[in-house]
Protein: SoxC protein
Organism: Pseudaminobacter salicylatoxidans
Amino acid sequence: MDDLKAAATAATRRGFLKTGLLGGAALAGSLASGRAMAEGDPVITEIQDWNRYPGDGVDARPYGQPSQFESHVVRKNVPWLTSDTISSINFTPLHELEGIITPNGLCFEGHHAGIAEIDRANHRLMINGLVDKPLVFTMADLKRFPGRENRVYFLECAANTGMEWRGSQLNGCQYTHGMIHCVMYTGVRLKHILEEAGVKAAGSWVLAEGADASAMTRSIPMEKALDDCMVAFAMNGEALRPEQGYPIRLVVPGWEGNMWVKWLRRLEVGDQPWQQREETSKYTDLLANGKARRFTWKMDVKSVITSPQVPIVHGKGRTLVSGLAWSGSGTIKRVDVSIDGGRNWHAARIDGPSLPMALHRFYYEFDWDGSEIFLQSRAIDESGFVQPTKDQLRAVRGENSIYHNNGIQTWHVNKDGGVENVEIS
Ligand SMILES: Nc1nc2c(c(=O)[nH]1)N[C@H]1C(S)=C(S)[C@@H](COP(=O)(O)O)O[C@H]1N2
Ligand SMILES: [Mo]
């Protein structure tokens, strides 16, 4: 083990030196990954069908779909996790995605009573309780509401990585970390809707209720409701998908996915939390001493390496590590990557937009010497929160929890390039 780690460390040092010395020029120079031209590659020398015959015309695909050669890139569920798919979750294929935005058709789904298929003409949003004027909005009313906004946010189910509390269990980041998506929402600030109804002085909590058969309901403190929550009707430029709450859902930036009520039908203003099932028996964290943490809304700083996930087939040499980092407390300031199981850390490169409470994309490039390595990533957010190891997390939270596992993930890469979920710290 120590020899392996030493070898991995040496490899890191070499990789680091090269990258450090050559900087950006490395990409075009000695570390490039192109291959020498081979004689007689039929893909080059023979005319292919797509080069010979015209293809489908415009309108053959009125709503475009990905290439048929990408048909493996789909959401997946784990059948043994839940007894029925109507009250279940599936997982975003994080290992197949790039950048920070999740395509609408690949956003994981979390339903408690299946997908509500609602005609927007028959949907209303009601505001009642401790307000001056109880109001009802149709979709047309919401669409002419002033002050429309566009915001990119991640949504993470509090149970994401929950199966890993007691040790590594599922293989592949789709299953260990795939209960997350990140899209651009279009909608209206909840604050403005509440202001139109006029919150009474005693109003300090908002109950959000869904129109689905589970009538999902959560209590949200007024401070958050008046801060950055949104009533969204679009995601990534088009109407919400039915799976994500069409025609409207609540957006609760940085907070656990369960509070982002889909198919939102009612907002009630009250003076205390309602103690719904989803904030008492569920979505609380049982500690080792038998007490439970409650109202653990914020999602903690976290990251995961999303590539390599399928076996590395290129052998030793230039290797690209890629991953995602996020925090319910704001932007990500830094991500570190280790190839020796957390002994040595190297600053990764964050690329793309750095938006508060959104996914961040990071890369780390190194020269793999072909030996066994232990890949980890560790995120640090703008508030200075550092992603803990799983041991550090368990020391504080015990082993009973399901929710809010933000521990550092380890991927073991063997000499053949195979990648496996393991735990070493
Ligand atoms: N009305 C309603 N809202 C809901 C749910 C639900 O079952 N019904 N599931 C919640 C849970 S537990 C999560 S994690 C998120 C999942 O959002 P998604 O389906 O867009 O991924 O929606 C939340 N909002
Ligand atoms: Mo969830």
